[in-house]
Amino acid sequence: MSTTVEIAPGPDLGSLKKQPATAVIGYGLGDFANNLAFSMGTSFLLYYLTDVAGVTAAAVGTMFLPPPRSERCSLPYGSGTRSPTSSPAAWSTAR
Predict the structure, then answer these.
(1) Which backbone phi and psi does 17 adopt, to 5 degrees?
(2) I want to staple 49 with a disulfide (CB 3.0 to 4.6 A). Which of 43, 44, 55, 81 is the partner?
(3) How far is 67 from 76, CA to CA, in rounded Å?
(4) How far, in Å, CA of 67 to CA of 60, rounded?
(5) What gap in Å lies between CA 5 and CA 31, rounded to an integer?
(6) What is the dihedral of CA 52, 56, 59, 65, to 10 degrees?
(7) What's residue 67's pLDDT?
(8) How far, in Å, CA of 23 to CA of 71, rounded?
(9) What pTM was estimated for this model as a whole?
């Protein structure tokens, strides 16, 4: 007995416009700068906690673990509450 599974057709990607190279490079540089700033802050905090404050590396690693996991869980629920059209200022007639 064989079972066939129908796969739903995907979106038509041919209708999307290709982004200009300047936009792609700009987004890439912005992402790099954001990750660099976050990594520098995390590295400094890791150095401070282990060498200056005397916290063990295992404890610091445990402290650094929960925030990304909790953000992954809470982000889908909170992202819809802050859209540009949900604020009363967006409904205002005096712009």
Answers:
(1) -85, 140
(2) 55
(3) 15
(4) 12
(5) 39
(6) 70
(7) 66
(8) 28
(9) 0.52
**How confident is the model at residue 64, as a pLDDT?**
85
pLDDT digit string, tens, across residues 31-51 = 999 999 999 999 999 999 999
pLDDT of residue 3: 73
Residue 49: exposure state from Cβ atoms within 10 A (0-12, 13-18, ≥19): middle
* Cα distance between residue 83 and residue 95, in whole Å: 18
Kind and range of the H or E run holding 88: helix 88-91
Instruction: Count the helix, strand and coil residues of the chain and give each as a percent rounded to the nearest 5.
Output: 65, 0, 35
